[in-house]
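User: Before I run my own analysis I want an independent prediction to cross-check against. Here's the chain; please return only the structure tokens and, at the end, one sentence I can use as a sanity check.
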Amino acid sequence: MAVKFIAFYLTDSAAILSDALESIINVVAAGFALGSIIIAAKRPDPDHPYGHGKVEYFSAGFEGALIVLAALGIFYAAWPRLLHPQAIPRLENGLLLILSAALMNLVLGMVLVMVGRRTKSIVLIADGKHVLTDVYTTVGVVLGLVGVYFTGWNWLDGAVAILVGLNILFTGARLVHQAAAGLMDKSDPELLEEICRVIADNRRPMWIDIHQLRARRAGARVFIDFHLILPRDLSLEAGHAEVKQLEKILNQHFEGTADILIHADPCMDPECPICGHEPCDQRRADTSMQPLWRTDTLTCNGPHKTPDQSDEPGK
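Assistant: Structure tokens:
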């Protein structure tokens, strides 16, 4: 960040100023990211029984808002330079300085994104992408100023700054949108697909059907709940063992970061055609099909129906 402000001091370039302002936001956002990660890592307590993971969405939203404000500041500084171009002094020195800053940010951004994906931290991923955006911004600034150097078109300085502002404006708006989606528990198709795949790959005959699957992330933790239909001739102890087995499979897949709630339902006569549990003295029909367990089927509000079953209530 300091390197870029030195470059701005030497050149008085609006484009370099826009790049430096974004770097300020990076530093401030990194501080909030660190704080939110520390809070999110706290164990659940009586006041926060679901943990503290959602603080990461607040941090990501705040970072997005800061980026939007930085974009507005860039527009304010760049517009006069576009209308009234002026020569840029010591341009070569400024270019060398911001190129060195871009290289350092490239390494930092890649490390943050890599660690964030490994730890499932939305804050680290957001911060890393923000730093990488800073690199792309710097590259754009360099290309624009190289154009000024070879053509003498000084208006490119203001034009490049405005383009930088537009770029980070969209980045900030996207972060705010993602944070709002997380706070409002928006459905995560990739997470649901992952859960469905794990359940389907470990399917057992006792697990007749699954419905009302819901899942969300909060920081590094995953919250999962669904209904599991079990044979009604099972004892309470045996049914509980099946539920615990499914919980164990999911917890192993998510490496102990999953909070799982499974509601066990006893089977009804309409489920006989999709049930593979044998022997069963409660069976009223032979098994004729095995329902496909996909995201669209496991998230539905009721059990599956065989083709010959009507849509009458209770069927």
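Sanity check: Residues 19 and 311 are 61 Å apart (CA to CA).
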